[in-house]
């Protein structure tokens, strides 16, 4: 039986500036890559050169049938020094937005996707009292120049990821995506080198991924509030939200209390942050199962992704249901994807994930769109170029793009609005 998505349901894909543009030399991540003893498997370098090839890339997305493109604007490019805004960089992002419209893609913009200007670290980074106001001024500069072209905006990508990293990745022995020490959630020696490259000391070097204590979370909430206020003042019609990374938190008998505590940390503590938002960006990749002693490992025969977590596309529908019971905002799936070299498994991941979205829509839950992570095989933070999340493969020796069947599959759904 064929299911038809609502006509206004948006289907497309997503990227992050640092992971695709290349040569974001003013970013704190660049310093981390170059730091002595850095845990990054590769240096981002030219990445996939999307900064130069964005027009061809957007044309390719459109030719595949995709109808939306979520990308981020790199703060470190727009504001290379405190209070100095680059007209040429703002013009570049205007061209990216115009290309989206030219090729029929709805743009969804993230103003911050993990990376920050190196200079921000000299002011205490995301532990600095002035950072919320600084971020809001950056948002103001962007919206004064580009706001007429931005219908949907995320102030931040995955505001809860620092807490998830601390709670989750340390338990499964995986080094978090920015190389934060997994066992102790501390600042390893190499971060002193990264801090020095940013012109500061390690005690002031607080990257976005270290926002995991009450004081820093409060600053992040204030940054979002000020940014939303600024955007709405300049562009009242722009839809404003943020995104959270949410695994489907499950429990086995005896683990209900542990699971409830995890869900409170991952999601519920951030609910006050959403007051006044227009939509909620939901991002899901897998599930987490808890017993009375904590995290329960996947079954021995469970399929794992390249990221070493469980292949479980059904998690998406379950998380949508949980979120919809707690908040009244429309939901956008702003990321959902799988790291694998087997593209047939990616097609199946999309199919089963969208089946979950379909069921939620039939239950009356207000889901507005689905943006797959990610458009291209790209730079996956400290894992370098080894993780294959993309709908489109990239030969980095030539920067040649090769669409996978998963891209065509999702494009057909986007075009027909049916599954």
What would your notes on this structure say?
By secondary structure, this protein is an alpha/beta fold. Helix content is 38%, strand content 15%. It contains 13 helices and 14 strands. The longest helix has 21 residues. About 4% of the residues have low confidence.
List keywords for this structure.
alpha/beta; hydrolase; 9-stranded parallel β-sheet; 13 helices; GH; 3-stranded mixed β-sheet
Structural Rg: 20 Å
Contiguous uncertain segments of 5+ residues:
172-187
Overall structural class, as computed from helix and strand content, comes to: alpha/beta
- Helix amount: 25-40%
Distance between the termini: 9 Å
SS field, number of helical segments: 13
Q: What percentage of amino acids are in beta strands? A: 5-15%
For the secondary structure, the number of strands is 14
| CATH topology label | TIM Barrel
CATH architecture: Alpha-Beta Barrel
User: Major sheet: order of its strands?
Assistant: 5-4-3-2-1-12-11-8-6
Mean pLDDT: 94
The coarse overall form would be globular
How do the helices and strands follow one another from N- to C-terminus? EHHHEHHEHEHHHEEEHEEEHEHEEEH
The major sheet is characterized as: 9 strands, parallel
- Identify the CATH homologous superfamily: Glycosidases
Family: Belongs to the glycosyl hydrolase 1 family.
EC number: 3.2.1.21
Keywords: Glycosidase, Hydrolase
InterPro entries: GH, Glyco_hydro_1
